[in-house]
Here is the input.
Amino acid sequence: MNLIDRVLVFEVLQRYIIKNNMSIEGKVTFMKTVKIFLIFILFVVFGCSSDNSQEDECKIELISAIENEDFQLALSILENESCNFTQEEKIINKALIYNIQGNVDFLEISAYLAELISEDEKYRKISLYLSTDASSQNLQNIEEALQVYSQINSDDDLVTYCYTYREDLTRKEQDICYFAGLSFLTKSVHTLFIGLANEGGSTAKQVANKFLLQAKRYTFCTEDRNQNNIIDEVDALLCAVKYSQGDNCDIDNLLLTTKDITIDVQGNVYNYSLLKIKIKSDEDQCSIYEDVILYKLYSKDTNKIILTENYCDQNYSPCDTPDENSCFPCPVFINGQMIPIIDTVTYSLNASYKTIWSSFDAPEDTNMAKVSRDFLKEICLPKPEDCICGRTDPCTEEDLDYYIVPLTITEEALINYLQTHYQEEED
Ligand SMILES: [Ca+2]
Here is the structure.
């Protein structure tokens, strides 16, 4: 992003593009106008202003520091008392700095959300879009941004605050909730597709692409060795999740073996079961292909399948090729915590919907808010009764269509959705 784009993000963008449901064509025209306007503001108004010159100077220095990616300087300007930034301005800009470092681009994501309103399979599509930058490093930055947004209120957690007080939020608070919603959305995609991609030899984006295909047609041997119409990365994750719940992993043509291991992370020893999942080639369709072997990590300390990325040995040192003895999928730690995959994706998606929804005065009439709910609806559709409508009731299919009915996904709903495919209709 260049200088003016960044100004757009935290000063102007949300007021116009998002809140007016502007089309993508409208956005492009608008951007050109706004850039000219902002150049005027920056160099004429800020440059020549005699009132509050210190504060204007602070803003120019802040923009310049962010543009130069001198984030330490930007943070120190925000904390400079003579600059008089409000609490909300500090939160928005500090979190923006983390989100920039996490490759989260509010402008681009917002434009893409606006495009999705008339599409089907919206969550699969946003997944493909956001998975390009999926990495634990970016997740760490997104988490930092979310921690900053949480400072909006000290009594309630961020999501509760945004959602409970949505009718009384100030504009700046609405902005904080909206940006947090985009961060939660990105977090859900990163967690899910890093979790699916690891040790498969495919990147997060490649797996997201397969996942989009899974919805549309019968899958080929290259992504579905056992020909059960579920991509093999999903087979492996669901098998591992069943194991973590104490159930048998009874997916077709799949063999699970486990081995207890420990990994010493800077003096802290963690206990895991390494799950080796062999997906056997379908004898009729895929016999010319080798079986697929994927590994997952079950944390015996938390009883969850946890997020891993790349490989490491028992001393947390990187290694190249996974085996059962000395090289394992490597657990991701964010702020010292392991990430349970299914829990985190479920929570982040619900949080994304609630915070984005809270950020609009009339969300049921706002495309951007509707899209955030449509992501959940898509996940609920295969089995609506696994989702919660209103406070506690299981959903019906009709409930899912009423935007006014609050919607919450459960882990069961997410698991159902992951293994859903839609057969092409026969002529
Ligand atoms: Ca499969």
About this structure: The mean pLDDT is 87. The chain has 16 helices and eleven strands. The longest helix spans residues 171-197.
